[in-house]
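Appendix C: a fully annotated inverse folding record. The material below is reproduced so that readers can follow the format used throughout the book. The structure is listed first as tokens, followed by the designed sequence.
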């Protein structure tokens, strides 16, 4: 399952999916403004303005999200984006407990989340560059879409590339926190337990990919929340272009 699908699934589970994030033509924008965005020129709002406004909203969302997830406990203490161990490691938890090593996997979960907290802010420019890649055509598609979130559109367009760029950053962060070393210790311990499940040679790769996927989910979760706040609360429209596109 791709990270974009994971994010969409988590969005639904957390209740975000029940709230329209997109610029619905019939529900969220004045018709005169909509006509201006789509090229009629009414209200002095151009297609370029629409693109700038959506990019600005997503910029704000990225910076806000990274500020939230990038602090100590940003992932681990947040029940909405906390990263659990991969299922294969959850399954061996009871086995590890039999030899008094259950705490090792508990600590691995802590350090997995800590790795995501370290990695996300390091990737700030990668996220912002992805926003810059949105075109005027992208912006118009978002406006025309019925109940289509700008955040979800960004995720769908950028997550494959973001995954590749984010992976080495996550790998380095998990090395810094000791998560990869803890995984190696768990793998070694399991070899000494008769009939215990064994972790394969790709256990490290799987753990990194797991951290990347759910780490991106967490970032996009909070980008979506910031996007909703900008639309719902005029006080969140902190620039002229945001006020022009989303209303004063």
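Designed amino acids, in order:
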């Amino acid at each position: 399952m791709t990270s974009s699908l994971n994010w969409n699934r988590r969005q639904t589970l957390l209740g975000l999916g029940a709230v329209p994030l997109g610029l619905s033509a019939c529900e969220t924008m004045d018709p005169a403004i909509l006509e201006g965005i789509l090229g009629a020129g009414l209200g002095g709002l151009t297609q370029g303005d629409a693109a700038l406004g959506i990019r600005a909203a997503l910029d704000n969302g990225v910076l806000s999200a990274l500020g939230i997830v990038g602090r100590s406990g940003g992932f681990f203490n947040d029940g909405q984006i906390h990263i659990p161990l991969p299922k294969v490691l959850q399954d061996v938890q009871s086995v590890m407990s039999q030899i008094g090593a259950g705490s090792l996997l508990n600590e691995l979960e802590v350090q997995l989340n800590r790795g995501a907290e370290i990695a996300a802010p390091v990737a700030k420019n990668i996220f912002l560059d992805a926003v810059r890649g949105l075109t005027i055509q992208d912006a118009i598609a978002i406006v025309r879409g019925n109940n289509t979130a700008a955040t979800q559109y960004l995720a769908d367009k950028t997550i494959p590339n973001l995954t590749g760029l984010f992976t080495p950053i996550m790998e380095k962060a998990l090395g810094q926190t000791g998560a990869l070393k803890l995984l190696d210790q768990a793998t070694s311990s399991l070899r000494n337990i008769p009939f215990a499940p064994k972790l394969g040679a790709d256990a490290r790769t799987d753990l990194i990919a797991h951290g990347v996927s759910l780490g991106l989910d967490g970032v996009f979760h909070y980008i979506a929340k910031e996007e909703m706040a900008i639309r719902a609360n005029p006080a969140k429209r902190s620039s002229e272009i945001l006020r022009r596109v989303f209303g004063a």
